[in-house]
């Protein structure tokens, strides 16, 4: 049982997963004839992020994925387990996935993706947020590093999950870099002093992946999620624009 924080730390686990999001998101351009990427700001339809829960002794976990399906595919199982134990989990998609479909793009697609991950969050019992950064255009710059630092601090995170920075997809890779570059800075008082620094550095963990160069993923912890697999599969079903409609390139690889 994971009733206490210490027990949870011991149990802390790497993340099961299995399905690689890359096949569905962010690869390729919208087809000619599809809705053009008008880039209607997602913010027009995005409710303000909920405030972080008050400290209550439970773990606080925040996961960063590049697109609104990455965290769900990589960590929905372990998130469901944490949430069921009363721990606080938040998924953040660092881009809005506004070109992640073969036949539509821009604001309408971004809002659709937001609605899908909100369904997933309700299934898992967690919070979710999408940053309004264009899909395929994420850069590991100072502005985005500060955004990641602020999110980790605001969540008062004990555990941070993200992609590794060696991934075929530039958005995945840059999320890995941004989180890596934020990992130390979250504790530095005069970096982003508008959000109070963390007194204790969180544990930073990578999502599992299948990339072999420059080095193969090596799991330090593995969590069985058999008991929550139905919730994870329900999330996949909720991501209908990705998994029923062929994603950014209609399923071509
Ligand atoms: Zn992705």
Automatic annotation (TrEMBL):
Superkingdom field: Bacteria
Pfam family, one: PIG-L
Transmembrane segments: none
Molecular-function GO terms, alphabetical: hydrolase activity, acting on carbon-nitrogen (but not peptide) bonds, in linear amides
Name this polypeptide is given: Hypothetical conserved protein
